[in-house]
Amino acid sequence: MDSTGLSMFMDICYMYILIIAATRNEIQDAGIFIEEKKYKQENFKIEIAITGIGLVSTTYFLTRHINNQRPDMIIQAGIAGCFRQNKNNTIVSIYKDVVADMGVAETNLFKDIFDLKLAGKNDLPFVDGRLVNPHQKLLSLAAFEQVNAVSVNEITTNKNRIDWYQQNYAPFVESMEGAAFHYVCLQEKIPFLQIRAVSNYIGERDKSKWTIKESIVALNEQLILLINKLTIYDEAYFRI
Fold first, then answer.
1. Greater confidence, 130 or 14?
2. Distance in angstroms (rounded) separating the CA atoms of residues 118 and 120
3. Is 37 within the bounds of a domain?
């Protein structure tokens, strides 16, 4: 095989991992690590990309990116609020996610799109109304606690809404992007992993009790360790 053929073969055989976050600050240290390791020059191509905040921007960015350059795997990393107290800086993997505030509030009762019969709970890519990550090899490799999450357009502060989410979705954390990420990856059949670092207790508005800086440090430390684990596998290992 000549040098041109070898180069083409390497281009075909490398594993392309895309790591996304809503804001650059959330994964800046991991980005520096990736640049220093120069994974683009080895058999792995690992890139950092910023989607912007929210479900809409995440959906748009991911769909456009996949159409232009399809990753073999996508990891979403970020901070999140937690429905349990005293969990700040805990790192978790998201097993199930859902857009929790898409529906209607009437007579002090919130109904989601499944309650309203606007969608079936098992219409693809949903499983019993949830967006479930089926990639157990990847979840197991990450080795974080696997939890349920809700994704919302408005950060939750109302106690009645918090109680409703807990009763109906049993979430551990809340974000503004996760469900969109799950939805696109499931539809595109791309292996994916969402990891979150807890920065605050849901409903707590006293920012002095939040640990955003510390949770970002913990998130990046664990993300770098995960990247090192991933580089010993090829992309075929994570297919289902």
1. 130
2. 7
3. yes
The two tokens of residue 108 are: 């002090």
The pLDDT tens digits for 123-151 are 999 999 999 999 999 999 999 999 999 99
**Residue 235, token pair as written in the block:** 């992309």
Q: What CATH code is carried by the domain that includes residue 182?
A: 3.40.50.1580
Confidence of residue 13 (pLDDT cuts 50, 70, 90): low
The DSSP 8-state label assigned to residue 235 in this structure reads G
Task: Please give the tally of structural domains in the chain.
Answer: 1
Residue 67 belongs to a domain? yes
Structural domain that includes position 152: 3-234
Per-residue tokens: 57: 């921007």
Structure tokens at 218: 């913990």
Read off the pTM.
0.92
Among 79, 96, 97, which Cα is nearest to 88's? 79
- Residue 79, φ and ψ in degrees, nearest 5: -95, 165
Spatial contact of 81 and 155, defined as CB atoms under 8 Å apart: yes
Q: Is residue 239 part of a domain?
A: no
Are the C-beta atoms of residues 17 and 45 closer than 8 Å to each other? Answer: yes
Domain membership of residue 240 (yes or no) is no
Between CA 226 and CA 235 the distance in angstroms is 15
Both structure tokens of 166:
């807990």
Peptide bond before residue 125 is cis, with ω within 30 degrees of 0:
yes
Does residue 185 carry a pLDDT above 80? Answer: yes
Q: Is the pLDDT of residue 112 over 50?
A: yes
Tokens of 160: 């009645």
